[in-house]
């Protein structure tokens, strides 16, 4: 069966659900080869753009009708997954549905009902591997989502497999992770050694497993800020505007482009709507970005009391971030808000605070009608629509405040940043290449794809699961994460990756991987193996092509070298010349028809030519040809005129004349034939006339073997 394993995971977000399909080598296939570096890596996960699909809206909208979540929402995605996972691998492919912020906001009873119906639909309508609904179908906390994102980012950037190439100083080789969705935002990073020791109880212990079975352990801080996603922040912002202008019907909004009018939910006002006739408040854009920054700053809620210092925002504890070694990557809204409108020409452009703020300020101060015209001409690409440009000013202000006033990321372009002496400017689209060679040198970089793979928390989940499918080396503990506790005992809150390792029937054993090993460049016995493989093919071809074809090939080969092919000699009998090793051509029984001796014309011969010896082969041979048979010789003493007309009726073709022990031909051997021997079915002195249609064939044709479907030939005679 196949050497690959597959995994299917649903990201059930607030706005919709997206399915991802991933693939990796099973343990046996991944361990083929002698390269120690390959064995000391995490399993190689692959995915494709065509292996993911999204549908709207989110499953949280089925809280009041949970029984419809399967047929109305999940069926399209599961059918899509079944199209791309090989049919023979479906029952061995784990399926996960992990819900995020949208489902967290549902009442407990509705959330439980939706999850139960999701699990029931998977079990009844698919054969995907689903041993534990509680583990495979669940609402994950924001911290877990952030941890999976941290795994994905470091996996793609190489922080796990090649830490020596990503040394940021102080023994630090991993990257921090920032994610912002619609409802929440997450941060995950490994603090420096000092902070890790000081805040050990606040860290998560993460355990992965290499292909060779060895464990990788990291201590990571993760936290989530619910309500700090872009959409929830906007909702809180609009509520703040309403509170600032009580009783007003038109509220000036500095976070909208100049001249744009929208209702409280952010939709453009349509003619005849309540907002258009002044019956309810609406927002009018002023396009003053500096004012927008001031109004979004209070949304960070930095004034909240911090019970466990230090805190970043919302009064939540966060260890101090050392930006000398902690370089962050941001995904989701961090990417879309910084790149979709403001960096379409430089998709991998590094973030520069001064330049970015200038771009946003210029854009938001433009007249709304001019912006719409640019959208129509696709100035920023096909993906940038009217809704995107409506929201980008607010999102940009919120991102800037979150990054610099909330998390504390240095303002590149205004504030000095410590970098290694050999650091490059790192302000071009070579950012991803520098991450592989020198590591991210700036404290923050927004990313979407790394090496063509989307940086998604779902990838981190699948990396964790795939590593758990590598057999443990020695006493290596289970793969997963939990509280940072010392000792070998797993903590009570330990979250398994999704299943313990168990070899499956579709996994190829070590011996069945010979073809992969043979053509693997790192295999030490590759060249001898290829030579042996070629030799086997040559020997097999020799026996299969047949003797005649072999002889023809040999004669052609000899003609190319200028040598004359030697005549084929008859092989002596023996084992090597049997049907298995020798002559494969069929043997035929030679059957001669009875004939009238008068049909043969014999020529005269000089008696001087008659041999004097009674033994075969002692006199000069006079062989003739008759259907391939050599004419036997007769001794002189056996040749008597009395028997020259003896009828063959009285003797068989192979009878022996009475006075000699020599085999004859059914005609008396007194008058020898010409040197050309017995001519098969020669015509008589009087030429045979043409036979009628029912008379058969002429005797001038060569004799044929009789068979059940053949009738004896009829001759025409004078």
UniProtKB/TrEMBL annotation:
Q: Which domain of life is it from?
A: Eukaryota
| Transmembrane domains' residue ranges | 527-545
Family recorded in the similarity comment: Belongs to the GDA1/CD39 NTPase family.
Gene Ontology cellular component annotations, sorted alphabetically? Golgi apparatus; membrane
In alphabetical order, the GO MF annotations are:
ATP binding; GDP phosphatase activity; ribonucleoside triphosphate phosphatase activity; UDP phosphatase activity
Region spans: Disordered: 559-582, 611-653, 681-718
Write out the biased-composition intervals (Polar residues).
Answer: 611-629
Q: What name has this protein been given in UniProt?
A: Golgi apyrase
Q: Which InterPro entries match?
A: GDA1_CD39_NTPase
Which UniProt key words apply to this protein? ATP-binding, Hydrolase, Membrane, Nucleotide-binding, Transmembrane, Transmembrane helix
Protein residues bound to ATP: 182-186
Q: Where is the composition biased (Basic and acidic residues)?
A: 682-697
Which species is the source of this protein? Meristemomyces frigidus
